[in-house]
């Protein structure tokens, strides 16, 4: 059995897509969803799928004792699905090449601190980019600089507004994130 811990800060649409993708796979388990927001939509998704939720604050997250909690679930992979806090170095060292993230742009463009969600899409449009997309990557000690596992692109039309671009990019996220997770699990 492969255990995946999911981290999310918001509505949880990627979490939902991942859970749907693996719903009939008996060799993959999702024992815990970690969130930093008490009213995050991902909590409802967790309830629907009967998955435990751990609500964390910065103090807990930044203390190395948090590793004990994570390790108690024997995770094969930690998946950031719209989790907005930077992963502390102690976690990266404890789970080398086992923490992945999805970013709504073609890194290295539009990555780094503060570049998430609508901020990314606004910047892409403001700079008249011809394409955008997603990057799925390992997490390292720098925002959005870990080894790239997959990139998929879509054209940006001159008529696109940030909200439309966000929808197109989210569709790519839902299509590809679970496939990359599955591939990593098979190779581990």
Your description of this structure?
This protein has 188 residues and is an alpha/beta fold. It has a single domain, classed as Rossmann fold (3-Layer(aba) Sandwich). 36% of the residues lie in helices and 23% in strands. It has helices at 13-21, 42-48, 58-61, 66-71, 89-94, 117-126, 162-187; strands spanning 2-8, 28-35, 52-55, 77-80, 99-103, 131-138, 148-155. A seven-stranded mixed sheet has the order 3-2-1-4-5-6-7, covered by helices on one side. Helix 5 (89-94) links the parallel strand 4 (77-80) and strand 5. Helix 1 packs parallel to helix 7 (162-187) and helix 6 crosses helix 7 (162-187). The chain is globular.
**Helix content estimate:** 25-40%
Output the radius of gyration. 16 Å
Q: Please tell me the CATH architecture by its name.
A: 3-Layer(aba) Sandwich
User: Which runs of at least 5 residues are low in confidence (pLDDT < 50)?
Assistant: none
Fraction of residues in β-strands: 15-25%
Order of helices and strands: EHEHEHHEHEHEEH
Structural class: alpha/beta
Topology, number of strands: 7
Largest sheet data = 7 strands, mixed
How many domains, in number, for the residues?
1
Mean pLDDT: 96
Strand order of the largest sheet: 3-2-1-4-5-6-7
Shape verdict: globular
CATH evolutionary superfamily: Formyl transferase, N-terminal domain
Number of contiguous helices: 7
CATH topology: Rossmann fold
In angstroms, what separates the terminal alpha carbons?
12 Å
Q: Tell me, what is the CATH class?
A: Alpha Beta
